[in-house]
Every structure is written in C-alpha cells, then in structure tokens.
Amino acid sequence: MKRSCHHEQALETPVITRRKLLTGAGKLAAGAVLATAGGFSLASTATARSTYPWPHKTIDPQKAGDIAYENWYKDFCCYATVSGILVPLQESVGEPYASLPLEAFRFGHGGTVGWGTLCGTLLGASIAASFVAGRDGEKIANDVIAWYTTTDLPVYAPASPKAAIKNTNRSDSPLCHVSVSKWMEKEGVEFFTPQRKDRCARLAADVAMKTSVLLNEWAAGTYKPVHGSQAKTHNRPAQNNCDGCHG
To answer: How far, in Å, CA of 208 to CA of 197, rounded?
Structure first.
C-alpha cells in the first residue's frame, strides 16, 4: 500500500522539540558572548559608526611629531602623518580610533603611490582632520595646505636624526613632485638618499604637529579659518603657483 505524499512530507519534516529550542537559544547566546569578547560589541560598533565626527581629546603636538617622524620609516608620509595625529587619540579616546587600521593609508606615499600629486603629509592631515572635525576638517585641511606652501620646511628637529640635512625650502605648491624636487635641488641630493628620506620624515612631523594644533583649537572653540576658497579665488580648483611648471 502506497503512503500518501502528505504522509511522506510529515515524516521528513523535522520536529522542533523544547530541548532543541533551548539548545538553539544557547548557541545564539554563546555567539553574542563571542561578539563582545573583545570588548567591542555589535551594538557598540553600530553606535561608533553612527557617531561622526569622532571624539577628540587634546593632542600633544610634540608627541604627534615624534610619532610621525618614526612612522615615516615604517610606511612613509601619508601613514606617518595620520598616525602622528590619530595614535594619541587611539590611546586617550580608545574606540572608534582603536579599531581603525592606520596602515590602510599607506597608499598616499609619494603623492599617492609615487605619482607626485598632493603631498602625502597633506593627504594624511586631511584624513585625520576629517575623522576628528567632520566637515570642519576641510577648513583645517585648507589652512594646513596653505601653511605648507608658504613656510620654509622642515623645521622639526628629531631627538635622534637618522640623517643630517642642511636646508629648508618653501615649496609654493602642495604637490609632492614640486616640493621634494625643489628641496633636493637645494640640498644637492638625489631622491633615494638618506638625506631626502629624513627630510620627508621631518616634514611629516611638521604637518602632524600643525594639524594637531589646529584640531586642539577647533575642539576648544578658538579655531578661526584663515585661508579662503581656492575655487573662488581661481574660478576653478587650482593651486596658487602654476608658473613653476607651466611657464
């Protein structure tokens, strides 16, 4: 005698007993414990992601500079500047900074993977300022870039320099290619030399320190932007010195 299809389906359908239901609930609870085992729950992750900009505590500019200088020799200019500003906040604030993989910003070296565009220190400063100050980070980045182009750099003096350098220079440009080329010509060295490397490490320290000062002022409510809009000044996105390359 053939069994009906309904009877076969009934036999194949799993029976959920009270024991299985309680076991399943226990597994879900264990998963929740694992999610929070590292001290960073799913709920807190969602909260951290929804809170922007991230919290700020006063940054010691000297500490920012020292970290940036040393970290340049690890992963170069963009990473060095970001870490100089954000590592102190990882230590003083914790999350969400503590979970941010700063090595992800290595790509900014050499004006973005060696293309000589925006100096990696300025890219790193802009990234960090955005995390801390949100939209106001753009104003801070604008002021840092203007300062960079009009200041004789580097001025940071490492406690234990990895190479001796003699010169500073005013770049008149935010471009890596222009800035570093002017300095190399003045110093009389090539690109892959200890002197040029230390110059860029010191430059990362300078930019991290300057950005930290402005972020501290912003947090204290005393920051006032000083540089105007590049687009409005030139009626297009532009730097202020084009003659150096275009004649």
So the answer is: 17
Domain that holds residue 74: 61-246
Can you tell me which residue has the tokens 């920051």? Answer: 223
Report pLDDT for 68.
99
The amino acid sitting at 225 is P
Please report whether residue 25 resides in a domain. Answer: no
Q: Is 175 helix (H, G, I), strand (E, B) or coil?
A: strand
**Residue 106: which of 174, 199, 204 has the closest Cα?**
204
For the chain, the domain total comes to: 1
User: What are the pLDDT digits (tens) for 6-62?
Assistant: 444 444 444 455 445 445 545 444 444 434 444 444 445 545 455 899 999 999 999
- Map residue 6 onto helix, strand or coil: helix
Which residue's structure tokens are 């069994």? 3
Alpha-carbon distance values, 140 to 73, 84, 88, 210, 219 (Å): 26, 16, 19, 10, 12
**31 occurs within a structural domain:** no
Query: Could you tell me which of 227, 179, 214 has the C-alpha nearest to residue 85?
Result: 214
Instruction: Give the sign of the dihedral formed by CA 107, CA 112, CA 114, CA 118.
Output: negative
pTM beyond 0.85, yes or no: no
Within 8 A by CB and 6+ apart from 195, the residues are 163, 164, 165, 187, 189
